[in-house]
Every structure is written in C-alpha cells, then in structure tokens.
Amino acid sequence: MSERTALQYPIPNDAVLDPPAEWAELRGKCPVAHVTFASGDPATLLTRYEDVKATLADPRFTRTSADGDSARVGEESGGVLDSQMASVLPQHGEAHLKWRRTLNKWFTAKRMAALRPGITAMADRLVDEMTAQGDTADLKAAFGFPLPVWVICEILGVPEDDRDKFSYWSDTLLSMTRYTQDEIVAAQTAFHVYLAGHVAAKRAEPGDDLLSELVTDSDMSDAEIIATGQGLLVAGHETTANMIAKMAAMLLADRTRWEALLADPKLIRSAVEESLRMDVNAGFGMVRYIDREFEVGGSVIEPGTTVVCSMAAANRDEAAFDDAHAMDLARTPNPHLAFGAGAHSCLGQALARTELQVALEVLLRRLPSLELAVAPGDLQRVEGLLVGGMAAVPVRWRT
C-alpha cells in the first residue's frame, strides 16, 4: 500500500469484534494515509499510536478549520460537527480551557465516589426489570442504554422520562449517513428548544445539578449553557451506552474472560481499560485541522488538511502495547487513547469509567451465567453514526 493510495473512510469491516486488516497494513507501511470520506472530501488518516497521541496533544491542531468550517464526513452535512452546539462552544485556546475548568469539578474522583452508590442501585434495578421479563434480553436496550441516560439526567437535572427523545436527538447529531439533512435540522431545533425551556426553568427555580450551577454561578450565556447541555447529553450517554454493550460482547465472545472475572473480581478495573483499548467499533475517530505545515510519521501535512486520528487503530499498535492483538484483562499500565489526549481529551472519562466498572460489577454479581445468545460473528454493528456500537447484544442466562 503506497502513501498515495486513497482509501474509503471509514474503512469497511465485516467483522464486528476484530479490526480491519488495513489497520496493521497502514501502521506498517503507510501510517500517514490519504483517504476519502463518503462525501467525497479528502483527508489524511493517522493510525500509529505515537502519531495519533502527538497530534491529539498538539495545541496547534484544532477541531475546526481556520474559517470555522468542519469537514463533511457523510453524504449529508450537518450533525455534531456542523451543529449550533459546535459553533457556540469554544473549540480551542484559553476560552476552551476556561469552559473545561468550569465543568471539571462535576467530574472529579470525589464526585464519582458520591455517584457510585446511586449508579449501582440503578444498575441493580435494571437487572431486576430485565430478569423479570424472562431469561433472554437485548443487553444494550435493557441495560446498556438506560444506565448512562439515568446518570447524565441526574447530573444535568433533566427528567429520565425524556431519555427516548435524547436517544433520537443524539443519533441525528452523530449521524454521518443515517439521516437526511432535513431530519438532522429538525432534531437539532427540537433539542435546542427543549433545553432552552429547561435552562429557563432552572433560572427560575435552580436545583442541585450542573445546569442550575451554570445558570447561577457562571458567566456563560444561555446559548453556551444550552450547547453545553447538548454536548454533555450526547457524550454522556451515547458513547457509554454503546461501550457497555461492546464490553459485554467482547468479554462474552470468549467466555473464559467472563469466568476469569468471576474468579477474580479485582480484575474489573483493568478489564474495563482493556475493553476500551480493544474496541474496534470506536467510531469515526477524532478530526483535527492545522493552519500551518506539520510533520508527522515522516510525512509533511499541508496547511488546511483534514486529519483523522484513529484512536482504535493506534490502540492496536504493537510498538505501544505488548501482544497488542491479545485481550489481557490484567494489562497494566494501559495508556490507551480511547478518551483521546491533550486539551481535548474526554471531559467525562472519570464518569464513563465509573459507569463501566459498576455495570460490569453488577452484571457479574447478578448474572454470573450470562452468555451471548448468538454466535459472536452474528452480532451486528450500528451503521452511519460517528460513534461505533452494536445494533443489539442478545444475551441469555440461567434462572
């Protein structure tokens, strides 16, 4: 594969739990690759750990191009990269750091410790509801999706009953090819109207939640608070809901992994980190831009180039991880890039880790006989979204 070869991106992959063969080939022969989006737009793809980490951490790279535009990553424009949310929130520089500092205290280790009992209770309740229906279920729909929705609703002070609305709004914001532009615009408008009303209600009667604090104790405008709420609702449930399902699928696809955790629950934390590293359905990757010439991986990237950092491919790099192809539940240290790196690393990663650990703890405790109800090769991925996930994870257990 030559450096000038232009691949279609995202790279097609029939296997749900295994990486596309092109990842290893690109890392070995063409770590700075020319790719083409479904929209026809060109981009540069990075797949080596060192290159991806350096680019994500480099402050010269931004989320938007010099003129403020985002690449069209799908057949339609729109979605989260071109949303009002993306245009309102500061994307780089001191303003971005200030925005993160304002939110950071809601995602500290102390806050996570305080949330953990409630998350555990909710996870137990979901297992109760799931097992009351029989001995089979779609783990994603019955457990993986509602758990992080409940958590982020608690943090933001929005009704849990509206979670189905959030699901649809999130899907449209994360769409590459799944929705038409009219559907995306209508959903974004409805989402904005909903949160505008919610922010107005918090201004009239604040509660003990993040949005109330932003309304009363920050200098953010209503537009920035609404956009922050949108961003946290999308990021706070969609990615984690998908990851709970993917983690379970990975651990149950080879059931010796599940049995190892049953035998030694102390492995849960490292198993969560290894599941994050091994995730081949992490989605589109991080898009970055730079307005000056930049050298990476032995190649020069021209100003204005759209750069896609594939964290999932980087996490399989043998140069960074011993036996990178193997799932080692005890792997430590595990400096994976699932949450990115640098100033734009995932704001809610402590929350995501807590939810994933609790989800795994509760499933192991309550459903030790859990197993996939289909062959691993029959699992289907969700298509057309910026984030990757399973369409469903059918499971069964002994009663």
From TrEMBL:
PROSITE patterns named among the record's database cross-references: CYTOCHROME_P450
CDD domains in the record: Cyp158A-like
Cofactor(s) this protein cannot do without: heme
Superkingdom assignment: Bacteria
Alphabetized SUPFAM superfamilies for the sequence: Cytochrome P450 (SSF48264)
Keywords from the named record: Heme, Iron, Metal-binding, Monooxygenase, Oxidoreductase
Presence of the UniProt keyword Cytoplasm in the record: no
Gene3D superfamilies documented for this protein: Cytochrome P450
Molecular function GO terms recorded: heme binding; iron ion binding; monooxygenase activity; oxidoreductase activity, acting on paired donors, with incorporation or reduction of molecular oxygen
Homology family: Belongs to the cytochrome P450 family.
Name recorded for this polypeptide: Cytochrome P450
Native source species: Glycomyces artemisiae
